[in-house]
Amino acid sequence: MAIDGFDSDQPDSKKGIENLKKRTKKLVGGAIIEGEINEAPPEVIEEFRNYVDDWEGAPWTTHFKQLEEAGVSLPDPETLDDSELTKKLWEVIEKLATFRAFLHETNHLSDRELYALLLNDILLEETKDLTVVEGTNCQIPLVGSGSEEDHYLYLKYYADESDRQFWRTEYPDIPMPDHVNPPYDRDRFLPEADYGPPPEWGNDQN
After folding, report:
1. If DSSP codes are grouped into helix, strand and coil, which group holds residue 98?
2. pTM value?
3. What is the C-alpha to C-alpha distance for residues 173 and 4, in angstroms, rounded to an integer?
4. Angle between the 42-57 and 11-28 helix axes, to the nearest 10 degrees?
5. Domain ranges within the chain, ordered by starting residue
């Protein structure tokens, strides 16, 4: 990410931008998309620098560990009847939101399937503790891995017609399944991130 707006007569600011770009590239693990922000105010650059500092300093954890530390029990799904499991699932979903972790695209899974997937996979993945990184959220789409199966599920259950047309044009070799309404109705009740107002970037933007 290239950010304009520093005075060219201030070498420390130019050096700071280059250092920030290098740290951001390291943070995301490779190449970053570059763009220009004309006359970005120094406070915006400073806000982003503080964000990078907070992210780098945040400890690694798992959502499983966070839930256990918060006192949320995570019993094996086989020990719960349907009513107990649904109650436990929503306890987990709502507690994840307090860690700024939000699920999406879950309507193709039953409560039992979703809880088992969380318990045996998603909750075990390493992640940054975003509770110490202000303004950051973890978005977890259940069909977002990039696998062929997830592409199929997305196109079948979640893609609208404009998305389906895009896939037909860009990826003509990928089979397009007929649209089917997902069998469950959960997503519209899921907690969502509150992003707040957009940042003040000034009048000129690219």
Report:
1. helix
2. 0.72
3. 41
4. 40
5. 11-57, 60-189
